[in-house]
DNA sequence: ATTTTATAGTATCGAGTCGCTACTATTAGA
DNA sequence: TCTAATAGTAGCGACTCGATACTATAAAAT
């Protein structure tokens, strides 16, 4: 920041500089920053969210740009693309084995390493504070939060309401959700506690 | 992050996403992200550090790229360039009035705004934690810290050593430093406490 | 002094990025 | 069945950024 230089300004500055550092590290491994982030996203998104359109929303880019990113990842053999049999306009994306392997060399690990040198309290504080800022800005810009199913207002936990057991459910898309599904991120997610 | 997903991993992830958000906001105002960061840097760097080379180090880019950035800012009338009369290879940079005015519309203010919604403790924690991570990574990558003079090991406070009064001094470059100078960032800075 | 080497910066080129505007294919609605 | 609306891709063009090569000046070596 340039002005008042209070703590808040310094935080903005630090985020900016760390972001730049991330980007420069992310040139490694034959991928560019957008491709790294796409790869990470696809590893953690649920099946309704592994599409070029959802990726575009996540990256804050256009569909065209996201499409190019996906094509590049497919050329490198890290991502698999197939048409959805139910809606034949849609494309379903997924990581290949090579894609998952590649993620083990994620440059972001270096950042996680640096973070883990902090005390546990400091880590929790950082995580909470950054998450809060991100949430605020996303709301402010009308972006989706991309949280996980189990924190979503459309999430119906197993045993709730009528059905006594069976899987959890998404009452927006009206589908069953496995335990694993519930921990993945989703385009449609809306924070429960609001 | 993709794996263990501990708090540390989540922090890396958040930094990445916030960084991307910064970048997308920084397209505003007719400048690109690198230009915004250069403008901010030049507003806060001392006179030994307002050069294309120092800027390149700060941005983590090459001299060529930094040179282009500076040229672009000069074309827009935000930065002034002049040759140093003492070392005629060197170029000294500075903001114009328009440059300072432009900084008032810094998109990073939005982030500072979001940060200032946090409690004072949370802000201090964030600032300290992020600063720590940045410092670690800079050391690890052999980058300069770009701190301010008064925290530098070459800083000699007024009244120290022989000279009883007069200005502070930089004992690396052997020059006088005003009070204002001492709060500016410097390429040559090395943290005092190590 | 003169030569050599180092330093500061710029010019230029090419690969790649990204937003934008079409455009196709498929589905949903009137 | 005709008309939107939706998911995605193609291709263009402005721009970015790193790498290489180059000029000008300064410092070091002989």
The biggest beta sheet of chain A reads: 3 strands, antiparallel
Percent strand of chain A equals 5-15%
Report the strand count of chain A: 5
Strand order of the largest sheet of chain A: 3-4-5
End-to-end C-alpha gap of chain A: 31 Å
How many helical elements of chain A? 8
Task: Specify the CATH homologous superfamily of the largest domain in chain A.
Answer: Winged helix-like DNA-binding domain superfamily/Winged helix DNA-binding domain
Shape of chain A: globular
How many individual domains of chain A?
Answer: 2
- For the record, the CATH class of the largest domain in chain A is Mainly Alpha
> C-alpha Rg of chain A, in Å?
19 Å
Which terms summarize this structure?
homodimer, mainly alpha, 2 domains, two-stranded antiparallel sheet, 8 helices, globular, DNA-binding
What would you note in describing this structure?
In chain A, β4 and β5 form a beta hairpin. The radius of gyration of chain A is 19 Å and the shape is globular. Chain A has 2 domains: 7-117, Winged helix-like DNA-binding domain superfamily/Winged helix DNA-binding domain (Arc Repressor Mutant, subunit A, Orthogonal Bundle), CATH 1.10.10.10; 149-182, no CATH class. With 194 residues, chain A is mainly alpha-helical. In chain A, α2 (33-44) crosses α4 (63-75). In chain A, the strands form 2 sheets. Chain A has a 3-stranded antiparallel β-sheet. Chain A has 8 helices and 5 strands. The model of chain A has no long low-confidence stretch (mean pLDDT 90). Chains A and B meet through α1, α2, α6 and α7 of A and α1, α2, α6 and α7 of B. The structure holds a DNA duplex (30 and 30 nucleotides).
